[in-house]
Amino acid sequence: MTTSAPTAPDRLWGGGYGEATHPLVQKLNASVDFDKRLAYDDVVGSIAHATMLRDQSLLSEADYAAIVGGLRSIWRDIHNGQFEWTQAREDVHMNIEASLRDRIGDPAGRLHTARSRNDQVAVDERLWLRRNLAEITRHIADLAAAFGQVARVHASWPMPGYTHLQRAQPVTVGHLALAHAEAQLRDGARVLDCLRRMDASPLGSGALAGTTLAIDRDKTAKLLGFSTVTRNSLDAVSDRDHVVEAMAAAALGALHLSRIGEELCLFASAEFGFVRLPDAFTTGSSLMPQKKNPDMAELLRGKSGRVIGDLVALLVVLKGLPLAYNKDLQEDKEPLFDAMQTWSDCLQVTADMVRAAQWQKHTLLAALDKGFLLATDLVDELVRAGVPFRRAHEQVAALVAELVAANSTFAQLGALALATKLGVPVAVVAAAIDVRQALRRRDLVGAPHPARVASQANAMAARAQRLAAAAQVWLRPTPAEQILTGG
Ligand code: ARG
């Protein structure tokens, strides 16, 4: 990174400026260190713009050929890590345009015809976001599919279900896995919704008020794979709603991963012992030789903090900005890139960890013996026998209190004694205090009946696949990308 003071030709707005800017102005103003991540989309956007200018006779065939050739060589260098970015050239847009001038000379000066960096950055960001959101949606689909696989294998593995982190009623490992899969599918649908809403090209909005030149906005929109154009130039250059929506989706997505992480931390502890995390996802302690720390699960929790912080940072930047473009908007990028990268990485590691986690059948079954998880089922039996619910609840509560005092359980007391105490037939009680039967008796949509969990697990694979396919649509190469790759 070169940080020397800008020479006159580096400043593309330098016509009326005689003196160099203050070094701190340059440092604070420059965004290239982070917005160079938009380079691909900037090149593609420029190719679309140049193609439209040529078709509108605002650019000669020869200048067009020189510009496209220059942009191709620039992208090649960027891609190979051979492009020299300089802070003196401020941002990704001016680095690329100035390099184009270095490479092809005068024709480069015609590329920015009827365009401002304001509509340029707006289009770059939409293109970047579209691709990244689509890729993230595929990771979300993969995580939902991973939970579906876990659910298929563990559809009938009983485990305690919790409320207030106290043992409550039995569920199955598959049922828990599918609960997390549902949240992932909602996250995916949220992203698709955001993708649809941001599907409009802002190019042609200019700095804020369009242009007097005869451009064709529909043409650039089509070349960039947008299905329409934005309807108001002031709005188009100042709107970052799609960035907020994407980051809000990321914050909620990270929050979901955080809850998964917390459960894995708890369940992998010796106190629970429900699940074993393979060594690939744990680290040792530099001091305590016995330690295997669930770092990845902990970091799913921890990383959610920064993603939520990224969203809040952007909301604060945007709050109170007058229309149209303001330089404050440049501050949207670092939080955006950070949130998307973090979300994407966390999704991928979660999917692998979920697939690799080894559920411990015997520990799960042992945990079901304690905690009176079937007390509610006994209440249901009394209700079936005609006892009013409130009375049945009191009766079973008293019985549980008695057993707790005697350090005993339903199973230890036995079905016969239980039936006598509650005044219901022994067969009924026996069925009610058997976990597997208790699960099978929950035969309604959304309940942990093993057969229902198994069929939902199968359906999850198809639902995840549909989500991935919906994301794929947004990853189709655009005509402008095909021009870039010479296709
Ligand atoms: N780097 C700027 C940004 O990200 C590009 C737009 C600058 N426009 C301007 N008129 N200074 O917001």
Radius of gyration: 30 Å
Ions and ligands: arginine
In the CATH hierarchy, what is the superfamily of the largest domain?
Fumarase/aspartase (Central domain)
Number of domains: 3
Class of secondary structure makeup: mainly alpha
Please give a structural write-up.
The chain is mainly α and 487 residues long. The chain folds into 3 domains: 23-110, Fumarase C, Chain B, domain 1 (Orthogonal Bundle), CATH 1.10.275.10; 117-157 and 167-210 and 228-366 and 460-485, Up-down Bundle (Fumarase C, Chain A, domain 2), CATH 1.20.200; 375-432, no CATH class. 62% of the residues lie in helices and 3% in strands. It has helices at residues 23-29, 32-35, 39-55, 61-79, 92-104, 117-153, 173-197, 217-223, 233-238, 241-268, 295-318, 333-356, 361-369, 375-384, 389-405, 410-413, 415-422, 426-432, 435-440, 450-472, 479-484, and strands at residues 158-163, 166-172, 275-276, 358-359. Helix 3 crosses helix 6. The chain starts with 22 loop residues before the first helix and ends with a helix. It binds arginine. Arginine binds next to helix 6.
